[in-house]
């Protein structure tokens, strides 16, 4: 009999290598497969997630979240999350369903939110320098986010809707899994990072 330990370190991404071609610290498919192996092993007694991650992709974080939930429902064995130096954003997303969370006192966690990043608008710079661009699309929003044209109010609303839907999903699962009132979870989930003590104090 043994307790399985799964390390989730670095960016939660489906990329197996970094920009230099070196193996990434976190291996997404390997992690999913390893949990499947634990599910099918009667000698396994529990799962510990060792999390040291700033987060990553919504898709990959959600896949791992559901794999952890599958482990719990299929085996009825406990899951513990140990949050090391950082378990922020996706790192907290995957920790939320754990039966118990143990955080190092120096851990930074939370960061419950979603971002598409920063989109540059160079259209005025190009106009000031007499540079013209031509973009060919099949619809007015096909090239939205292009740095060569100002973003319209419609396009801004489209991008915001993508972020908002992912945010609602994130904060909803936090409230459900940590048995917290949704309104309270939303009040805490403004994207900020919390220390381990602050997170504990906030429930």
The string of secondary-structure elements, in order, is EHEHEHEEHHHEH
Helix content: 25-40%
Number of strands: 6
- What is the straight-line distance between the termini? 33 Å
Q: What kind of sheet is the major sheet?
A: 6 strands, mixed
- On the 0 to 100 scale, the average pLDDT is 96
| Class from helix and strand fractions | alpha/beta
Q: Compute the gyration radius: what is it?
A: 20 Å
Overall body shape: elongated
* Amount of beta strand: 15-25%
Supply the number of helical segments.
7
Report the uncertain regions: none
Describe it for me?
The chain is α/β, with parallel strands linked by helices. It is built from seven helices and six strands; from the N terminus they run βαβαβαββαααβα. Strands 1, 2, 3, 4, 5 and 6 form a six-stranded mixed β-sheet that branches.
Task: Give a quick summary of the entry.
With about 200 residues, the chain is of the alpha/beta class.
List the defining traits of the structure above:
203 residues; alpha/beta; 6-stranded mixed sheet; 7 helices; 6 strands
Chart the SSEs and their pairings:
Blueprint: E1 2-9, H1 28-39, E2 44-53, H2 58-75, E3 79-88, H3 90-93, E4 100-103, E5 108-110, H4 123-128, H5 153-177, H6 182-188, E6 193-195, H7 196-201
Parallel strand pairs: 1-2, 2-3, 3-4, 3-5
Antiparallel strand pairs: 5-6
């Amino acid at each position: 009999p043994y307790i399985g330990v799964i390390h989730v370190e670095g960016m939660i991404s489906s990329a197996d290598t970094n920009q230099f071609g070196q193996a990434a610290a976190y291996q997404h498919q390997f992690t999913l497969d390893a949990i499947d192996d634990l599910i099918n092993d009667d000698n396994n007694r529990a799962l510990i997630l060792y999390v040291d991650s700033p987060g990553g992709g919504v898709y990959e974080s959600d896949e791992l979240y559901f794999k952890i939930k599958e482990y719990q429902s299929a085996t009825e064995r406990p899951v513990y999350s140990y949050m090391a130096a950082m378990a922020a954003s996706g790192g907290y997303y995957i920790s939320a369903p754990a039966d118990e969370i143990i955080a190092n006192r120096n851990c930074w966690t939370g960061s419950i939110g979603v971002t598409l990043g920063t989109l540059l608008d160079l259209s005025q710079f190009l106009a000031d320098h007499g540079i013209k661009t031509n973009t060919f699309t099949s619809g007015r929003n096909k090239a939205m986010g292009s740095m060569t044209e100002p973003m319209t109010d419609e396009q801004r609303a489209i991008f915001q809707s993508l972020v908002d839907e992912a945010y609602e999903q994130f904060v909803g699962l936090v409230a459900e899994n940590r048995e917290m009132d949704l309104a309270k979870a939303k009040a805490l989930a403004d994207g900020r990072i919390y220390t381990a003590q602050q997170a504990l104090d906030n429930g």
